Amino acid sequence: MSHRRVPYFSFSSCVRISLQVSTTLRWFAAAAISQTQPLPTSGSKGNNCGMPLVRRSFQSRGHSGRPCTHRWASVRTRASRMAAGRRRSNSGSPGGLLPLIGFHCMQFREGLSDRRAADAVRGRIDWKYLLALDLADAGFDFSVLCEFRARLLEHEAGERLLTRLLDVARAGGLLKARGRQRTDSTHVLAAIRTLNRLELLAETLRAALNAVASAAPAWLGSIVPADWHERYDRRVEDADLPGPGPKRDALIAQVGADGFHLLDALDKPDAPQSARDPAAVAVLHRVWGRHFVRGGSGPQGNPTSKVRLLPLQNRGPGDRIQSPYDAEARYRTKRNTGWIGYMVHLTETCDAGAPHLIVHADTTAATVHEIMRVEAIHAALAAKGLIPSEHLADAAYISAAQLAAARERHGIDLIGPPRPQSTWQYKTAGGFTNADFDVDWDDHVVRCPAGHRSTAWHEFTRRYYGEARGRRIRVCFDAALCAPCSSRARCTSARAQGRQLTLHPRAEHEALAAVRVRQAGETEHLYAQRRGVEGTIAQAVGAFGLRRCRYRGLARAGLQSLATAAALNFDRLAAWFARRPLATTRTSRIATLAA
Q1: Most confident segment among 53-67, 103-117, 265-279
Q2: When you count CB atoms within 10 A of the terminal residue's CB, does the N or C end of the chain come out lower?
Q3: pLDDT for 67-109, tens place per residue?
Q4: Domain identity same for 474 and 553
């Protein structure tokens, strides 16, 4: 019997193969994160006997990481001063903030869990080189990563994951303020399962019971009826629940009564404080306050008859908790997409002759509209010293108020298509729109195209479900003047009233008018550059796992988006120094036939 000869690979060959498989992210990370200590030479003693081979493979001729290593050698010292040192503490965690930031960039670049990333530090030579560790280094426990993120959240320092890398890029002359930036958003799915209403109610009560059982088991055991174990010991699944009908309605009422029974017991003086403290109890209060109401006089001994399920229609956005395990995740529909989770707004530079780097990642609940985040994004960029002169965004970020505020507060030219007007005058050729009327802001008078003057000027606050949404001005014309006017068919369709206009305050009105004038000219050319950020979002979603939350809660979801943005910046800087051009938009073979 013949045997296939197994090829022999020397240690040097294995090292070279391992490094060639590595992405260019690691090559840049080595230059930006490694410490000031020189790499060991072939004559050095200790456990670094294999590191010269790693360095030679890393910097070999033709290797993609070579441009990064040479170009970023000058910033190694600066990056090292930002770190606390490479010595390990007694807990076994890697010393210094910058190495942990670089470690998270590599972890999110490859989509590894904490456990697998810690294994990579112990078993992969390229990771050891990038983190300036000895080849014989035993690594650290994966729980260190969770503790590190917890400290970032505790001190509200999650931005350091992104800003430390931006500082290094700025020191290298690759990032500057008063350039051109662009912003777009995408949805992020929460790390929860989708629940119908009955599942949400029963699972919320079950989560509260589990939390109280951990905090005060003896007290809970004294108040829980025996039949609760049948309903709440196991996870609530819709397949095990009765279908629509009287049985399902009765179960909903029973769950509601059980929840009120627990809440009433927690409100009694003899309830221990430890049973009231869990966050799941607060969630139970909020969910029951939105879905149930108690009242009436039911039959004696039948508490379910006093519990009534509230309708959710026409109640506004409210406090719509979708899962007791992530109370900050919200449901939203945008065009044809519906999801439960969050929104992430990515802002990146788009100047010619420089890499396109993400300078801000803003995470919000899904129900927060894009227009509500423009000022917050500008304020964050100002705090980083990265205010742009031109900010490109789509229509969801554009409003008269934001156009005026961006120019007045930060000197930013916010560029994007304004939302199209919905009145029939804008949709009809020859119709008289607001732009056709002359406004005298000092005298509070408006003159129509036919020369008539307005008779009323009233300022008011526009509201949405009771929330103030900015100031507006309502202008009215006399019906006696509009009725015989020859241009009435082009101006108004009202029979008993004259023409009415709704205007923005002066600064907002003029900013919006200027955008509409420029829309068909220079602005359209600039706005075309905004579409490039859609490629950034596609890269973050497809290659970096931005679409799905790894953690629960808004703060942790925001930390994930910051780490993802930092990892993407590593990748782009590596491509920039390797002189790898930007990929062009893919075109299918059949589409090329029509070109």
Answers
A1: 265-279
A2: N
A3: 444 444 333 334 443 333 333 444 455 555 667 787 888 899 8
A4: no
When mean pLDDT is compared across 122-126, 280-284, 296-300, 334-338, the lowest value belongs to: 296-300
User: 535 and 506, same structural domain?
Assistant: no
Beta bridge partners of 503: 473
Q: How far is it, in rounded angstroms, from Cα 420 to Cα 440?
A: 25
- Domain around 540: 341-418+527-577
Number of domains in the chain: 4
Verify that 149 and 255 share a domain, yes or no: no
Residue 228 and residue 91 share a domain: no
Do the strands 337-349 and 330-334 form a parallel or antiparallel pair, or are they unpaired?
A: antiparallel
Query: Looking at residue 407, what DSSP letter applies?
Result: I
DSSP assignment of 122-188, as one string?
A: HH-HHHHHHTT--TT-----THHHHHHHHHHHHTT-TTHHHHHHHHHHHHTTS--SSSEEEEEEEEE
Matching residue, tokens 């934001």:
402
Burial zone of 337 (CB within 10 Å; 0-12 exposed, 13-18 middle, 19+ buried): exposed
Asked if residue 466 belongs to a domain, the reply is: yes
DSSP H helices in 323-369 = none
124 and 219 fall within a common domain? no
182 vs 526: CA distance, rounded Å: 10
Say if residue 493 is in the same domain as residue 542: no
Task: For tokens 């430390």, name the residue.
Answer: 164
Write down the pLDDT at residue 94.
53
pTM of the model: 0.81
Q: Could you tell me if 466 and 405 lie in one domain?
A: no
β-pairing verdict for 467-476 and 500-503: antiparallel
Residue 6 lies in a domain: no
Q: What is the mean pLDDT of the chain?
A: 82
Tell me if 130 is assigned to some domain.
Answer: yes
